[in-house]
Design brief:
Number of helices: 5
CATH class: Alpha Beta
Number of domains: 1
Largest sheet: 6 strands, antiparallel
CATH topology: Nuia
Structural class: alpha+beta
Shape: globular
Helix content: 25-40%
Length: 224
């Protein structure tokens, strides 16, 4: 059973006059990503999937055949890190969002097997996550289905809910502006293929950068 006691949402924001600042937050996050991308000089990424919480060092750029630049990917990862600061997914506990990146070949379809391969080390290292990822049940949602979820953020008098709604709105706007093929995956130890449940369910929002690399954010849901 999924419980989202105080989680943020985009759909209910339309009913909140008190959350009118969400659009400006989303605009600021998207602008920050554009600014970071244009000014970045960081080096390339590669290897296993990682949670990106700090900036990467190195100099120079490395072009990809998919129309983007690796330094742009790193700047976008930093912008996503900034957008998720203080953002929580609330179920039966509160968990932060983390930026995740994969090493799958640019342009390959974003499939369940793709995400399993790229994020296995990340998920298996999380203390509270169901694991190992290779043996977990999986469920996939479209981006539209994710955004249509009815989450409990309808109280304009709750500062926490208003703040979290603004943060989610801004994050979703940034993901939509900078990534393509956005897809949502759930991985848990309980349930069945296509119907995931579990004590520590990993939720992954992932898409393709302009260079074709896998990038997104992940969090954890506690469902009992």
């Amino acid at each position: 059973m999924r419980l989202t006691l105080r989680a943020s949402c985009a759909s209910m924001l339309l009913a909140l006059s008190a959350a009118a600042g969400c659009d400006s937050s989303a605009s600021e996050a998207t602008s920050a990503a554009t600014s970071a991308t244009s000014s970045s000089g960081a080096g390339g990424t590669g290897g296993d999937a990682v949670a990106t919480n700090t900036g990467a060092g190195g100099g120079g750029t490395s072009s990809s055949g998919a129309g983007g630049d690796v330094s742009d990917d790193e700047a976008l990862a930093l912008a996503l890190t900034k957008a998720t600061e203080g953002m929580l997914y609330t179920s039966e506990s509160d968990y932060p969002y983390e930026v995740v990146a994969g090493s799958t070949a640019p342009g390959a379809p974003i499939l369940e097997a793709t995400v399993r391969a790229d994020l296995a080390a990340y998920v298996d290292a999380k203390p509270d996550a169901d694991k190992p990822l290779a043996s977990l049940f999986a469920m996939q949602e479209s981006w539209a289905e994710w955004k249509a979820q009815l989450l409990a953020c309808a109280d304009p008098n709750d500062p926490f809910l208003v703040e979290q709604c603004e943060k989610r709105k801004a994050l979703e706007a940034l993901l939509e502006a900078k990534l393509t093929s956005l897809t949502v995956f759930y991985f848990g130890a309980v349930g069945a293929p296509g119907a995931v449940d579990g004590v520590g369910v990993t939720i992954v929002l992932v898409g393709r950068t302009p260079s074709g690399k896998l990038l997104g954010v992940a969090t954890l849901a506690i469902w009992t």
